[in-house]
Amino acid sequence: MRWLVRGDLDGFFGLALDNLVQLLVIDLLCRTVLEFPSALVYGRVLPAVAVSLLIGNLYYARQAMHLARSQNRDDVCALPYGINTVSLFAFIFLVMLPAKMAAQAAGAADPAHVAWKVGLVACLGSGLIELGGALVAEKIRRATPRAALLSTLAGIALTFISLGFLFRTYARPLVGLVTFGIIMLVYFARVRFRGGLPGGLVAVAVGTLLGWVTGAAPATEAPIGGLSLYLPWPVLPDLLEALADGTWVVYLSIIVPMGLFSVIGSLQNIESAEAAGDSFPTRPSLVANGLGTIAAALFGSCFPTTIYIGHPAWKAMGARVGYSVLNASFFTLVLLTGALSAIVWAIPVEAGMAIVLWIGVVITAQAFSATPREHAPAVVMGLLPGVGAWGALMAKNGLRAAGMGKADGPAFSPDLITAFRGSDTWIHGAFALEQGFILTSMILAAATVALIERRYRQAAFWCGLAAVGSALGFLHSYRWTAADTVVSLTPAWPWAAGYGVMALLFWMAPWLVKENR
């Protein structure tokens, strides 16, 4: 197996774009929502992100090469790796923004700096949970049906990835549909352009040209700052100061679930890779993931990393090992030189979003194709919580667009439940389903598989697990804030009771039902 093959170029464009989208979001939200100065973003946060991406991408490339050599194969694809999207938004809006507002209210001289330090602790906590999860993760993976693991990913891929970019595709149809057509032609028809040009490169080049012609680019008036050298430097004194301050304890209700979700998500992606033919050991894969996140915090990034969704899609593109090495090299160069702002200015997101959209389609399809045919209902069951969580997000975005949650507008409150019910929309259920939907998806799909196979006690176990999770507040427990509904980690007794009765029903099923012959 070679370190670089033709398909690695396509894989690189896809993975680099995926990571680039996260970095654009970090750059935008840190400077506008959190009001971090550019010196903090470009001098501390982004160089630390480079360290974490370098560690993970190089490790997973080496891991894939080792697997290929040990099995005498040339088709092994490295696990994709990048910034944890869910934690990114959670840490910005549910940890650092409240910390900044609390520091402002207390009269702190530099509230943004306080928020950054709290974010460092949150990132460190997530990394430690990921590291600890490596000790038990393989047992969890072996005990969980494949349909439960893959359908959860499919729910995220179908909604948070595919539908979001599909909206954007149809909002900018000339750029979006043309580039998507290129991706469909190359990857669904499994053909190549004459001259051997990678389909991903063609899509990005054509999309960039059309973006400038149609006005989608440039996205900003001019690049922020200029090229310079920003070397990563440990921020241990700031991290220790934040730990000693104790402010972070308030945000444990966010840090702990995000760490657990990262472990579960990584498990799902390892299972997805195995379903595609590449069986990587669970424990070292999760250890590397945790170390990457810890390194991010030690050097100044507030954003955990994770094993990415999409391994089957990268493999289908022909990516092997080199795409991961190229990704590490590219972002090390970009993030240590401040070149990100120039890329943001020159290449519109629309130029490459078709690749991400295709990845979402492939992941959703794999949930059905890589599981036993009779488990298809379980896959659908596992899709539903992700779809519901995305619907709740869309509802809340619509309310914010209408002025709710702003300083001069009405706050989110229980009155919304009554208002939505007037149109037969049970928004209370959507908000409850949104909290912990990754776990809910796994549990419902796993229980469905057990019932399909008439293993009633196992179905009862999964529902009992959901009851415990609800009682501890990891599932369905939410509280109101001025502009959102967020996890509260308080007992969600109605849901705990519902799951408990389900568990009792399935446990007693052998005495209550008669099997059809």
For the structure shown, list the relevant keywords.
two-stranded antiparallel sheet; single chain; 517 residues
Strand order of the largest sheet: 1-2
Element order: H for helix, E for strand: HHEHHHHHHHHHEHHHHHHHHHEEHH
Major sheet: size, sense and barrel closure? Answer: 2 strands, antiparallel
Average pLDDT, to the nearest integer?
A: 88
Q: What is the overall number of helices?
A: 22
How large, in whole angstroms, is the Cα Rg? 23 Å
Number of strands: 4
Instruction: Assign the structural class, choosing from mainly alpha, mainly beta, alpha/beta, alpha+beta, or little secondary structure.
Output: mainly alpha
Taken from the alpha-carbon principal axes, the silhouette is globular
Q: Are there runs of 5+ residues with pLDDT below 50, and where?
A: none
Count of the separate structural domains: 2
